[in-house]
């Protein structure tokens, strides 16, 4: 992204702490030409830690992200991965629905 586009994305993101704008074109598990990896095997999480150090994560609670990465690598928390992009249209309550559904399916009560 150009600097001007990046500024607009950050400005319009209404930073709530759990929405991350990440400056990377690195894809994982999205096709034959992509890099293998995911949160669980550490490839994607290590890439995010690198981006944190390079100030390429523009919005979101960075401490919460680091905690999620550490917890996922130690299998302490459920990490729900998605491939949502800027051009994906979602219902306004979709994220809330998918989080509740994931808790019902995966939480070990």
Structure description:
- This protein has four helices and no strands.
- The longest helix is centred in the C-terminal third of the chain and has 13 residues, at about 95-105.
- It is about 40% helix and about 0% strand.
- It has helices at about 5-10, 45-55, 60-75, 95-105.
- Helix 2 runs antiparallel to helix 3 (about 60-75).
- By secondary structure, it is mainly α.
- The relative contact order is 0.13.
- The radius of gyration is 15 Å and the shape is globular.
Residue-averaged pLDDT = 75
Q: Which of globular, elongated, flat, extended, rod-shaped describes the shape?
A: globular
Look at the helices and sheets and give the structural class.
mainly alpha
**Ends apart, CA distance between termini:** 43 Å
How many strand units? 0
Regions with little confidence, pLDDT below 50 for 5+ residues: none
Task: Give the % helix.
Answer: 40-55%
Gyration radius from CA atoms, angstroms? 15 Å
Order of helices and strands: HHHH
Count, helices: 4
Approximately how much beta-strand content do the residues carry? under 5%
Biggest beta sheet attributes: none
Task: Give a brief rundown of this model.
This protein is mostly helical and 109 residues long.
Which helices and strands occur, and which strands form pairs?
Elements: H1 3-12, H2 43-53, H3 62-73, H4 94-106
Helix pairs in contact: 2-3
């Amino acid at each position: 992204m150009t600097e001007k586009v990046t500024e607009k994305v950050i400005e319009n993101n209404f930073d709530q702490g759990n929405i991350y704008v990440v400056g990377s074109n690195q894809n994982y598990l999205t096709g034959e030409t992509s890099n293998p990896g995911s949160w669980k095997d550490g490839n994607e999480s290590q890439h995010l830690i690198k981006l944190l150090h390079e100030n390429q994560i523009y919005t979101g609670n960075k401490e919460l992200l680091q905690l999620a990465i550490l917890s996922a690598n130690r299998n302490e928390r459920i990490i729900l991965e998605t491939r949502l992009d800027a051009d994906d249209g979602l219902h306004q309550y979709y994220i809330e629905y998918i989080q509740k559904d994931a808790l019902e399916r995966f939480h070990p009560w």
